[in-house]
Amino acid sequence: VLKRTNQNWISVEKRLPEDYKLVIISGGIGYYSTVEQQSWFTVTRTEPKRIQWKVTHWMPLPPAPQSKEE
To answer: Are 11 and 59 in contact (CB under 8 A)?
Structure first.
């Protein structure tokens, strides 16, 4: 069962995520880097890959699920 969060999409014109912090973007999960030519990247099994489409919005990843023991 998915829990609803209060997270909303954030326009890249209003704010960008912290460098290298994984976030949800249209088309998957990626990160933004000001160090690497101010570009968006997706994470593959082997290495980061520069995103070829225009990212307009992003959203923080939801918190990890908690086990019943915690």
So the answer is: no
Largest CA distance in the chain: 44
DSSP E strand boundaries for 1-70: 10-11, 23-25, 28-33, 39-43, 48-50, 57-60
Residue given tokens 């890249």 in the structure block? 12
User: What's the one-letter identity of residue 38?
Assistant: Q
Query: How far apart are alpha carbons 13 and 1 in whole angstroms?
Result: 33
Query: pTM for the full model?
Result: 0.72
pLDDT in tens, the chain (70 residues): 445 555 789 999 999 999 999 999 987 888 898 887 788 888 777 778 888 889 999 999 988 888 776 5
Strand 23-25: give its sheet, edge to edge: 10-11, 57-60, 23-25, 28-33, 39-43, 48-50
